[in-house]
């Protein structure tokens, strides 16, 4: 069914947009709005890089050509100059004033920042007045006297001040780079050096020195600085990184590195868990003026999967890490007794001289005749001399049930009962005893049983006794009484 409307016939009862009849006629306002929309949507400058060859592209090319032609038609002739106004050149005082007020490179004659020339009202002074007192700072380098002379103090007075300081502190103890606060007084003429009125500096962490002038003479005042030597104790949880956790807790970098080296001798770092706790104590000196100096690691503790408690003990030139009971253990690998290749390892083999299969109780080193043989670690010479098939033989006792033997020597240079240190020469390679050529036969015993030298990590045990043990326990009690930070 179709309905008649003003625009023709329209399908009734549906949603179809089909219409029959003539096209609708728009009113004047509608036509104006339609043309305005077309003009606004019309692209005057289409992109010549897109849709090449389309109708919009050709229209844009025509617009560009028309604009270029308009510029060409309106441009002046190519050889006709464009006139402009040129300022008159400056000379004389006008040029000087312009240079002083303008910005420019000094290399091109610029005088930026310079003042204008003085006028006739300015009267020059015969003598420039000096400051009555000059305050200066100097850095200690070659000595007190040279630092004062560089500041302007006379040589005689500088040496006098240096002598006063040397009477209180050894000049060798003064740290280069120390800051000197110097006050110079008035002088009679510019040709004379200024007198020293005051000198102050920190000679040591616990001592400050001051030189003042009283009645024409210099006097030295020493001001001791109170120092608190209570150690710094830091505890914390290991977490993801032991190093970062200790540094975040306030431990100095060198102390943390020493802590890790000390603890890793007993517990590999790979076995330290995140829930383990670290405990370290560091030397600390806190001055009354607020400065703090941190020193060496004194205590290293670790609790968790494995407990470690080590105390640093120094007696004279000897420094050891001991447990709180005074028992220490130094971990390390024994050095090779001779610089040579291994010709025969520990185990069963056919004896090169006897010709039958037997256990080779050590290692053979194919070294040249006369090569030096060294002790693999510290010990005592248990025996030194001829020992059957071993020829010239040396046995060293290292304590803790460990001993080493060195056979087939050409010459022995140690005596039974003497002490030897690691790396000390005890003899020379030879071919004595049951031997087919110059070499060193090296053995290692643990509780009297031969073991493979490759499989043993050597340990030296130290036990404190007597008065030293009493002092050590007193030292440990003082450390354990320090409160954690």
UniProtKB/TrEMBL annotation:
SUPFAM superfamilies to which the protein is assigned, alphabetical: Duplicated hybrid motif
Alphabetically sorted, this entry's keywords are:
Signal
**Record-annotated M23ase beta-sheet core domain positions:** 359-453
Transmembrane regions listed in the UniProt entry: none
Source taxon at top rank: Bacteria
Q: Name one Pfam family in it.
A: Peptidase_M23
Q: Which InterPro entries does the entry link to?
A: Cell_wall_metabolism_enzyme, Dup_hybrid_motif, M23ase_b-sheet_dom
- Keyword Signal on this protein? yes
Matching entries from PANTHER family are given as: L-ALA--D-GLU ENDOPEPTIDASE, PEPTIDASE-RELATED
Protein name, entry field: M23ase beta-sheet core domain-containing protein
